[in-house]
Amino acid sequence: MRNAQLSTIFDQMADVMEILGEDRFRINSYRKVARTVAELPTDVGVLLENGRLAETPGIGKSSLAKIEEFVESGTMAAHTELLKRVPASLPELLRIPGMGPKGVKVIYENLGVQSIADLKRALADGSVAKLPGFGQKKAATIQRGIEFLEASTGRIRLDQALEAAALVVARLREVPGVEKVEIAGSVRRRAETIGDVDILVTTGKHTEESNQQHKRIIQAFTVAPFVDRVLAAGETKGSAIVRTDAVAVQVDVRVVPAESFGAALQYFTGSKQHNVRLREMALKAKMKLNEYGLFKGDALVAGATEESIYKKLGLDYVPALLREDRGEVEAAGKHALPQLVRLEDIKGDFHVHTLASDGRASLEEMVNAAQALGYKFLCITDHSESSVVANGQTPKRLAQQIEQIHALNARTKGFTVLAGAEVDILADGSLDFEDELLADLDLVIASIHSGLTSPRGKVTYRTLKAMDSPYVTILGHPTGRMLGQREAMDLDIPAMIEHAAQTGTALELNGNPYRLDLKDVHCRMAIEKGIKLTLGTDAHSTAGLGLMHFGVATAARGWATKQNVANALPLTKLKSWLKTKRPK
Predict the structure, then answer these.
(1) Which residue from 323, 336, 327, 201 is spatially nearest to 270, judged by alpha carbons?
(2) In this structure, how many other beta carbons lie within 10 angstroms of the beta carbon of residue 85?
(3) Which of 51, 74, 316, 576 is the most buried (most CB within 10 A)?
(4) Rounded Cα distance, 531 and 291, in Å
(5) What's the CA gap between 328 and 383, in Å, rounded?
(6) 305-362 confidence digits (pLDDT tens)
(7) How far apart are CA 550 and CA 320, in angstroms?
(8) Domain range holding 244?
(9) 222 and 268: one domain?
(10) Are residues 185 and 196 in contact, defined by beta-carbon separation less than 8 angstroms?
(11) Is residue 338 part of a domain?
(12) If you compute the radius of gyration of the chain from its CA atoms, what whole number of angstroms results?
């Protein structure tokens, strides 16, 4: 709780400082502290006691003192003093699309607007439109922004955002003259949840016809059948609510000149924190970096490609998946970026269900689908007996399935089916099957499916005890979260990772976009401890096997290479690895 509270406090201080027009470097510093604290797996009080918080990158002496003050007293004087300088509801206005800190400052100082309710009244009586620099068009944009904010259900899953983005990209590529269409923003970085979708388009060199061409591109987007509501439609930018079968999400399309396409792609990909670091480097080199390019004076020195920008700044190219200001800029400067795991490195799937439990395809159908993907192995991991709602297998049924898998392997060439099971971790930390049966399996995934809201001590004890079993190869979806539906268990992540390293237990990165569990920052913690990650789609159908790219992207966001991922092992090495923890 304290981590979340502190993250909110630092973010709020940054918001207020932006409204007040204070030093941007301090604002960016507070933003970074807020994000760093939010991602800490251990309570800040514990980290203060053992001295580890002072060693955490992104937390300086001044911020550390503020955190200590909050832990000791429950308040932070700097936060309290800042809040006194503006009405408490004023920062909420920054959540409105089209409203930035400068705009909030203007409407507050000129109209006395202090809340969204006040702003609605000022829009209704025409006061906002009369403000300098606003006008009817700006007022209408703010009104639509309020409507969108109120109608929005929050962030959506990555797969949902990709579905909406794919509709728009396909539409734009049909427009004559379009040369490039690229998805940017958090979708390109493959963040686990998405607020909106950014798409960039270029038509090549600027000509007399360019302006008309740009208008045609924006129009092609805004009149598309999947557009639910147009928010804005200018000469080079269009914003609309795109509706798929599952969600409605804001999509922004921008048309940019070819000479600035790389700069725009870099800028709109983000993250904000990564971009701040690059702009600071540019300033130190007496250059300026923005969405139009990298400039030395008035001269454009890079901008057509992202690679040219990083090169001019003395950096190796940073893959979009790593652009979170988590050490990637420093690594790029030292030529020390990892060779990230790729989908083509993956030789099989560790987590698959069939008709034997709650899957929708037979053993043979799942194997055929895996072979069609070019895989070399597939592990069948149907549920154990306690998962009644998932038609969990009895010991007798599992024994029969093991025999079926052996028979299938005997008549299959160039492909191996591994006999496994997803075994429930029971309330006392024991496993759902006896060791005698587990010994007959090639691997065991141990997972918690019940009691997820239990206290931290209980869920952590269950998890650690399960990993003590010499037959547990993998800890499945370790935190039990379901994005947008269920919070993660209150699991002691550092203790879990430490115990996995001690017991030689692999940790699953469940690639189902509902889960993405472990999350990226925890994957990196595991990798630093030498723990193998296993990627599993948790597929319940042949189509589900196609979710592997989500797991790969999340692992790469956690700085994983193919050496860190068991799915990339050649079959002979994989079989040897599977035996390392088991009794000799």
Answers:
(1) 323
(2) 12
(3) 316
(4) 40
(5) 39
(6) 999 999 999 999 999 999 999 999 999 999 999 999 999 999 999 999 999 998 888 9
(7) 15
(8) 156-255
(9) no
(10) yes
(11) no
(12) 26
Chain centroid to CA 437: how far?
38
For residue 276, what is the DSSP state?
H
Residues 528 and 407 occupy one common structural domain:
yes
Q: What does the block give as tokens for 578? A: 């599977």
Could you tell me the pTM of the whole model? 0.78
Same domain, 318 and 208: no
Which parts of 394-508 fold into alpha helices (H)? 395-410, 435-438, 456-467, 493-503
Residues in the chain: 584
CATH number at residue 474: 3.20.20.140
| Residues 306 and 392 reside in one and the same domain | no
Whose structure tokens read 């209150």? 490
Nearest to 79 by CA among 88, 107, 112: 88
Count of domains observed in the chain: 4
Per residue in 366-387, pLDDT tens?
Answer: 999 999 999 999 999 999 999 8
Residue 91: Cβ within 10 Å count? 20
- In-domain check, residue 326: yes
Crossing angle, helix 116-124 and helix 101-111, to 10 degrees?
70
Q: Is 78 contained in some domain?
A: yes
Q: Residue 437 corresponds to which tokens in the numbers above?
A: 């049966």
190 Cα distance to chain centroid: 5
38 contacts 7 by C-beta, under 8 angstroms: yes
Task: Say which residues have a Cβ less than 8 Å from residue 563's Cβ, sequence separation at least 6.
Answer: none
Q: DSSP 3-state assignment of 425? A: strand
CA 177 to chain CA centroid, nearest Å = 33
What CATH number does the domain containing 284 carry? Answer: 3.30.210.10
Residues 329 and 393 in one domain: no
Would 584 be classed as within a structural domain? Answer: no
Residue type, 123: L
